[in-house]
Structure formats: structure tokens, C-alpha cells
Amino acid sequence: MTLPINRRRFLEGSAATAAATLGGGAAAIWAPAVHAQALALKPEKGAKLRVLRWSRFVQGDIDAYMANVKKFTEKTGVEVRVDNESWEDVRPKAAVAANTGAGPDIVLSTNDDANLYPEKLLDMTDVAEYLGRKYGGWYPAVHQYLKPDGKRWLGLGLGASGSLLVYRESHVKAAGFDAFPKDTAGFLALHKALKEKGTPGGYALGNATGDSLWTNWLMWSHGAQLVDKNNKVIIDSPETLKALEYAKELYATFVPGTLSWLDPNNNKAFLDGQVSCTNNAISIYYTAKNSQDAKVKELASDINHAAFPIGPIGVPTESHLFFNQMVFKYTKYPQAAKEFLRFMMEEEQFDPWLTASNGYVAHPLAAYEKSAIWTSDPKNTAYRDCVKNMRPAGYAGRLGYASAGAGADFIIPNMVAEAASGSKSPKEAAERAQKRAERYYKV
């Protein structure tokens, strides 16, 4: 059964106590919760760690991360090797490590990858509960991803790369819209107008780990779901057909080529002026602001961000790329690995990293809502609540092997691509998705 998104769960870890400290200035923001106890983790003698993580999309991320790694080594004497790979490469390499019992000690991966091999992962409950008590509690989706049985933490949340709308304000206004539409009818009308003006939008329909998540929004906003709360596959439904008919109309307004787009493609298309609206993390804006190319840098003033509009279902249905941090049981240095992750999540390290990466990863712990990065630039603020508001990728079912496998197999993005492009009818695409999903969600 999916963990409930309610106040009790949200406040787990003394969030109420932490919130009470937030009125006393900058120092009070990070004052530890009264119930937070010190966590004694002593790295093993001679410990060495290897970390496999996804490659940076903003330079500040990796610069600050590696600065924190250096601090950890200087403090503990533990050497840490960090290997950076693309999102698409981290998952298979982590799976090989899990199956062979050899490789990196720690993996920073995506969505519910931890549920692909939970029995291979070190129990992180002590660290997770310590951080939750100290920093206002983990957001509900983090529990659903990493504590699916309600008992054991499979890893720690790192946060999420927000999948929000990135758009050119001047182009939206030129298309006849004073503000970005807040419903799906207006969203479609905007994209039709943008195409007519020669400034189209475009969204990834290839097997993009992060940027294809807009297809979850498309389904959920129309009331469609891959599975119900009992993990029964229900994607072949009238709601899905409505969503896919909408997708066909929307796709007709896209710039050519989106069927093969992976995660870097829409960034390049936007910065090259090929599209004026797409979904992405804050990395497009970050790149524009920090570009050495005057033409690209000038673009930053015209960029803004918005949440995806609300569809017929009548409620927000946000889908973002969740990042987890896992430790394999085979590690020779479990105490060192736990201490490394604890250290990296503490305010002294985490907030500077959050700031240096310009909020590219939205925080998973409630206390970090008060980080200055979210208000230092008003264009950052839209990304602040991504983890707080998101639905897990396996919504509305229980996360586990099935949800992780179905997500890794890109069933929803492939279905939308087939129907939108016309290679299959909406009904054919939904039926194929149903059969594919049922292979994972076996009765």
C-alpha cells in the first residue's frame, strides 16, 4: 500500500520543532531540532570509498560536490573516488554492481532504482532518521521512493531535478498570452499560437531519463494512471485515450525531431533559439546566465519558469526526476559510507552545494526550504517545492521491483510517442503499454 501523503508523515522527524526555529534569523534557520541526536559513525581504519554518480548539468554542482568530498577526506582521512556518468549509464552500471557484488560503494541514481535490488542495499535507517529529525523531516515522496515497506530506508534522498516549464516571456506575449496558461486547454492554445508565430515548443519523446517525465504529467492530468493503488495495471483506459488524443494535438505544434530527443537535446534546442518553450530543470537558465557567449547570456533575461498546468482532473500532477543515494551491502566500509552521506547532507555542506548548483536539485528535507537560493533570484523560486509537491513515478501504486522496472523501460514515454506521432492509434498504443506493464506487475 502506498504510504499516505499526510501531515503525520510529512512531520515525521520533528518538522514542527524545526519549523519553530525559523523566525530567529539566519542562524536559527539551521538550528538543530530539539530531538535531533548526534549520530556516531566511525569510519573503518584504512577506508576508501568509490562513488558513482550522474554527470553534472550545471558546473557549480560538481565543483561544490567535489569541494565537499575534499572536506570529508581532510576531516576523516577517508579517500573518495568519484566517477561521473550520464543518467542513462548510471542505472545499468549500478545494476551490474548489484548483481556481481563488486563496484562502487555508493551510487547516486534516479527515481526508484533502489527498488530494483533492495536486498542488495545497506540499511540506511539510522542515518535517514537522524537527518529527518534534524532537518524538519523528509518530504512524502522520499518516503515512498526509499521506505516503500514503511520500515527500512533503502537509501537517502538527494532531492529532485525539477521538470518545470522553461519559456521565453517575449515569445509567449507575442503569441497573445499575458501570462503562462494554468490549464491544459490554454497550454494547447499557447503551443498552437507559438507554432503559428514560428517560435514553436518541443518536449522529449525519446528515452530521456529526466525530460520524458512530462508524459507522466500528461497522463495524470487527464486522470490516467499506469497502475491503481493495488498495483493493478490500468493504463488501457478511457482517461488514457483522452490524454493521448490531447498529445496528438500538442505534438503537431512541436519542432521536428522530438521523437529522438534525449536529455541534452531540449537544452541545446532552447539555447539555440529553435524552441521557445520546453520542460527542464533550472539548467537552461543557469547556462544562459553564466554563458561567455553574449548572445546566449542576453537570453537569460527573457527566460522564466512555470509549473505544468492543471488538467481535467483538477489538481496539480507534478512529476520530477528524483535522485537517491544508495550504499551496497558488499562495501567493505559501511560505516565510512554512511558517514560520507551524513556529512554531505549536513547544512554546512548541503546548502553551499544547493547554492552553487543554483537549485538544480531541489532539496528533500523540509528545513532547506529556507535556503537563500530560492529567493535570491525570483526565477529560482518555482523549483523550490518540486520534491514537496511531486508524485512518485510509480503513482498510484506501491513502489518496488515492478515500478522500477516499468520506469526503466520507458513504457509511458514510448506510449505517448507512438500515439502522438501517429505510428499507432491511441488505442493500439495503450494496449501495447498495458501488455508491457503487465510483464512487470505480474498478478
Which sheet architecture does the biggest sheet show?
A: 5 strands, mixed
CATH C-level of the largest domain: Alpha Beta
Q: Percent of residues in beta strands?
A: 5-15%
- Radius of gyration, Cα only, in angstroms? 21 Å
Low-confidence stretches: 1-28
Helical element count?
A: 21
The CATH superfamily of the largest domain bears the name Periplasmic binding protein-like II
Q: What separation lies between the terminal Cα atoms?
A: 15 Å
The level of helicity is 40-55%
Number of domains: 2
Q: Which CATH architecture of the largest domain is right? A: 3-Layer(aba) Sandwich
Secondary structure topology:
Layout: H1 7-10, H2 15-19, H3 26-29, E1 48-54, H4 59-76, E2 79-85, H5 87-100, E3 106-110, H6 125-134, H7 140-146, E4 156-161, E5 164-168, H8 169-174, H9 184-196, H10 214-221, H11 238-251, H12 263-271, E6 277-280, H13 283-290, H14 294-299, E7 303-306, E8 321-327, H15 334-345, H16 347-356, H17 373-376, H18 386-389, H19 401-408, H20 411-421, H21 426-440
Parallel strand pairs: 1-2, 1-3
Antiparallel strand pairs: 3-8, 4-8, 5-6, 5-7
